[in-house]
Amino acid sequence: MSYTKVKEAARVLDGDTRIVSLEPSNLEDIVDNIRLVGKIAGRTAQAEKLTAQLSERMEKVKEKTRTVPRRARVAFLEWLRPPWIGGHWIPQMIDYAGGIDNIGTLGKPSRKVEWKEIVEYEPEIMILSPCGYDVKQVLAEVHTLSAYPNWDDIPAFRTSNIYAVNASAYFSRPGPRIVDGLELLAHVTHPELFRGNPLSDSVRRVSPGLIKA
After folding, report:
1. Counting Cβ atoms within 10 Å, is residue 179 exposed (0-12), middle (13-18) or buried (19+)?
2. CA 58, CA 76: separation in Å to the nearest integer?
3. Which domain range does residue 84 map to?
4. What SS3 class is residue 135?
5. pTM of the model
6. How large is the average pLDDT for residues 91-102?
């Protein structure tokens, strides 16, 4: 919801309504926003405890992936038809998780792309994360990808490294669970470093047969 719409709605409310605009563009902004909300709500101690825990978990992921010998090219799709590539904090999540995102732009909005651009990027891992969808909803839409050509030219397709994730819970919304999403992404990108994924119900490997019969 836009800031302008919120201001318009606030005019009809009784009392002195304070409006705080939260527009994070990266993971650190999200943590800072949680701290700010805690302060405004009179829950500073609780917010400081939570944000310290979130920052510590982020650092643990970064530490594990800092010296990985090789980083895979990752394509994070926030919509399937037409294809949209994740922006805002998504490229940073991929970087922290030990991957490379040379198709999304950190701090910028998600963007619509031509399918040809994805094919030419040759992603080694593809994350299907339509905004607002859970895993079951993503899997129900996977068949729409069959309309795209040149799947055999995409390494992620050839190696079955395409994953459906719970976008609604762990990627689309800038709240505490975004760090859960980071840990999930790290597990997918480097399973040899991140074993025993606690969010196993929130990610599914997509069989190539579901895409290309």
Report:
1. buried
2. 19
3. 70-211
4. helix
5. 0.92
6. 98
